[in-house]
Automatic annotation (TrEMBL):
A GO biological process held by the record: carbohydrate metabolic process
Protein name: Putative peritrophic membrane chitin binding protein
SUPFAM superfamilies the record matches: Glycoside hydrolase/deacetylase (SSF88713)
Lineage, uppermost ranks: Eukaryota, Metazoa, Ecdysozoa, Arthropoda, Chelicerata
InterPro entries listed in its UniProt record: CE4 (IPR052740), Glyco_hydro/deAcase_b/a-brl (IPR011330)
Amino acid sequence: MIEKFADVPAKDVNGFRAPFLLTGGDNGFRMLQRHLTFDSSLVHQRYPDEPPFFPYTLDYGFERACIVGPCPQDSYPGLWEVPLNVFFKDRDVDGELMRMPCPMVDGCVPHPTSANETFDYLRSNFEAFYKVNRAPLPVFVHEAWLRNPAREEGYLRFVDWMLEKEDVFLVTVSEVLEFMRNPKPIGAYKQRHCKKSVPE
């Protein structure tokens, strides 16, 4: 289906996100382990003052709290988990400002309504990764969230702001895992270049 509608060759698909984050537990993970390199469906709950999680293999199973079940119970040697580290958004709850967690960028409600609010929301979550342990920040978002012109503008400003940093790279999940397997000092890291052609 991806090959037909998105022009992505099947051989290039090496990861999976379960629809609605419903992995199917061990049945789903047994299938993944046979055909793919990584999963990115498991929500990793944390408090605002806790560091985000790095990708890891399921060699010893999934040892976190299961937020969206069923979660895998068995071990899956060699299968990587790219964690859905929760994002945080300030929200007024009965007159008290609380940092509310959400599994994806567009999961935090109410959604930002201006470019500035979008930029600030993304920047504050980026800084929680960048200033703490520099775990990869996956910006998982549904395309519909970016159809709002103000959010799109704020998102693009955020990308430009990140790219001003000499030690920040926009990469694919496969590149993250390649780096996790074979880390390099920043001076030795060679970023791949994006293909700019758009399929017809």
